[in-house]
Amino acid sequence: MECNVDTEIQFSGLKSGIYHYEYTLDDSFFSEYKNEKILGGKVFFDVKLEKKERLMLFYFSYSGEVRTTCDRCLEEIEWPVEGEETLCVKLSDTETSDDEDVVILPESDYKIDLAQWMYEYVAVSMPIQCMHPDDADGNSTCNPEMMQYISEETDALEDEGAPAESEEIDPRWEALLKLKK
Q1: Which phi and psi (to 5°) does residue 132 adopt?
Q2: In terms of C-beta density within 10 A (0-12 exposed, 13-18 middle, 19 or more buried), how is residue 2 classed?
Q3: Contact assessment for residue 63 and residue 77, using Cβ atoms and an 8 Å cutoff
Q4: Are 66 and 122 in contact (CB under 8 A)?
Q5: N or C: which end of the chain has fewer CB within 10 A?
Q6: How far is CA 60 from the centre of its chain?
Q7: pLDDT tens digits for range 119-134
Q8: What is the pTM of this model?
Q9: Residue 156, helix vs strand vs coil
């Protein structure tokens, strides 16, 4: 599947000033990155470019939803993403930068592709764990069959770790076992 979003901006012919661009990133865009966390989605980007003589400031504003896998029940869920980011691009043949928000391009370059930055902004806006939210009563909205399976497996593991009734328990640990019950 090929991405149908053209995220390249040819800046060489642009005069100093402010320019606006809009993008809709969809499944074809996200499939290019092969990330197991982001399965697809639809994210709208509004990009404002402030062009100066040897400097360009890109202001990104985005919102939408991406599809990911619930870390608890493994079902696919829609996860909301939104944010605002700024990227500074300098044109220079001699300068270097250690700042990840500052990009140095050779003066001979005439265009920039924003795709990688847009993808990264969406990816880092996601939490480490994505799970179905709980309902108003505090109950999980995850797949009930999977939650039942997890509960049964957890109970089996707890039973495995508990000492048998006939086993003698070290008195130092007996008080702790009473606290657990």
Answers
A1: -55, 140
A2: exposed
A3: no
A4: yes
A5: C
A6: 16
A7: 999 999 999 999 988 8
A8: 0.77
A9: helix
